[in-house]
Write a structure and sequence with these properties.
By secondary structure, the protein is α/β, with parallel strands linked by helices. About 40% of the residues lie in helices and about 25% in strands. It is built from eight helices and twelve strands. The two termini are about 30 Å apart.
Length: about 220
């Protein structure tokens, strides 16, 4: 899962990036509305954490721009203002949640989990495709009725992307943007290496479900049972 963090307090931004990284989120951190818009134009995000009190231009202007442009990405607004009037204003502008600074880290993580269950879709912590189960809580790929292998963070993020859209070809560019971020130096070879690692683990499990290559385009997860 990838998040965009828009926070111009450098220390808080760095703290949040470390916190989210430890909790298996990919994060792109920016400090201004203009940079946020560039990232949103070039990448897909599962959620946005937005500081309402940005010094250059307040976060609400970005929120208004997103909602007027039919961007429905879940947004959690951070603000030092906890009065009811301000909370109502932010939520009415289109925020999905509101967190007052200073906040408890566990509470913020819980809010992130809650808002990314949007549009009535509860993201399950385990997904079954064919004879494979992806257990996100334990970072494991399991075979139905026996066997499991541990996944690295990058392997987990990539296989989750494929599990979320089985039988659909996921472009290599989309994988790079989703997993490494739009400003990374990752190239196709990075994706190919991790796909190779995942395939080896699937073979070790004796799975019939396969990752198929769409030559020159990307990969799809196929149930071969």
């Amino acid at each position: 899962m990838r998040l965009l963090l828009v926070e111009d307090d450098v220390h808080l931004s760095q703290t949040l990036v470390e916190l989210l990284g430890r909790n298996r989120y990919g994060v792109d951190a920016v400090y201004t509305n203009s940079d946020a818009l560039k990232y949103l134009k070039n990448g897909a995000y599962d959620g946005i954490i937005l500081d309402a009190d940005l010094r250059v231009k307040d976060g609400l202007s970005l929120l208004k721009s997103l909602r007027s442009g039919s961007n429905n990405t879940p947004v959690i607004v951070l603000s030092s203002k906890g009065d009811a009037r301000n909370v109502v204003k932010v939520l009415d502008t289109g925020a999905d949640d509101y967190v007052v600074k200073p906040f408890d880290q566990d509470v913020l993580l819980a809010r992130i989990r809650a808002v990314t269950r949007r549009k009535g879709e509860i993201k399950k912590n385990s997904i079954t495709i064919g004879d494979l189960v992806l257990d996100k809580d334990n970072c494991e790929l399991q075979k139905v009725n026996g066997g499991a292998v541990k996944l690295s963070l990058k392997e987990l993020q990539i296989i989750e992307f494929l599990f979320d859209s089985p039988h659909q070809v996921i472009k290599k560019e989309s994988i790079i943007e989703k997993i490494w971020g739009t400003d990374s130096n990752a190239v196709y070879n990075n994706v190919e290496v991790y796909i190779s690692f995942i395939r080896k683990k699937m073979e070790d499990l004796g799975a019939k479900t396969r990752i198929r290559t769409a030559r020159g385009i990307g990969y799809s997860l196929e149930d071969s049972i």
